[in-house]
Amino acid sequence: MLLLTLESTCDETAAAVIDDRLEVLASVVASQDRLHEKYGGVVPEIASRAHVERIVPVIQETLDQANIRSEQLTAIGVANTPGLAGSLLVGLSAAKALAVAWGKPLVAVNHLQAHVYACRMAARREVFPCVGMVVSGGHTSLYRCQDAVDFELLGSTIDDAAGEAFDKVASMLGLTYPGGPAIQKAAAAGNPQAYQLPRPLLGDADRLAFSFSGLKTAVRYQIAGQGSSLESATARLSSAEVADLAASFQEAAIDCLVGKAELALQQTGLARLCVGGGVAANQRFRQRLEAMAETTGVDLVVAPLALCTDNAIMGAIAIERVKQQRFESLDLDIYPRLDF
């Protein structure tokens, strides 16, 4: 069985070819970081236009790398939820066109479930059931995952996603985009205890919810104070102050993430935690997760760095649907927002 998977939920145009043993025959990712850098975040219209330009070359390069022909494919998997509407439409339209042209069945991929499935890819063993945690630029959520495609939402952010907060704080500190790697690099030279920042909702033992808006605002007030000009205050920060603020923010955000993950494990009684998404690439976050797992005896599986950011390899979750003959008709639609 050979599967072509397409990913275009946000600002990466990606394709991969994977077999039913979860071996990756080819993977291509075209990043848009440079296109969005000057805006400090993803601009949806720019993202969708870039996908239009890149989707066909990315697919062709992937097939060439895998050295396969279209008739060798079993099915075409495509992420149709959640994500940016324009970006999703590009990937889905391409997948539908190929399904018709090549006579192949279409398989829908849930982008968030795929992030957790990246842990299955890395572990090379069964990881379900588990608590699944997706921490990215657009999502910060906890799930009870009975199997690869049976997810129950336990809790999510009520405002900013963790990755979004990293991007915004990096911008406040005059650091580069994307904010996650920039914050991590700056924090390496800083003191995480230098600034006393809030840990929103961490003390609420009844709610598996996250909130990062207040933490982001607290950083702004540390930089400029209420009513002051942020731009001029940022320009006056010393490199040591930037490092300390980055480290203090990073530690506060990670405290919230690890604390709620541990609470989810306690509430569900599950003994395995699978973590995916772009923020899972943060080294300090990974260290704290490992420490928590060692203390509690939890089986921890974190997606490898190469599979944390958006990619089409994690679209291998479509194989689970192919095995169940769960195919889609050509009227398959996109669902930019996903509430489950």
Notes on the structure:
The protein is an alpha/beta fold and 340 residues long. It folds into two domains: 2-115 and 310-323, ATPase, nucleotide binding domain (Nucleotidyltransferase, domain 5), CATH 3.30.420.40; 125-307, Nucleotidyltransferase, domain 5 (2-Layer Sandwich), CATH 3.30.420.40. The protein has helices at residues 33-36, 44-66, 85-102, 111-123, 162-172, 179-187, 213-223, 230-236, 239-268, 283-296, 318-323; strands spanning 2-7, 12-19, 24-31, 75-81, 106-110, 130-135, 140-147, 150-156, 272-276, 299-302. Strands 3-2-1-4-5 form a five-stranded mixed beta sheet. It has a five-stranded mixed beta sheet with strand order 8-7-6-9-10, sandwiched between helices. α2 (44-66) runs parallel beside α3. The chain starts with a strand and ends in a 17-residue tail after the last helix.
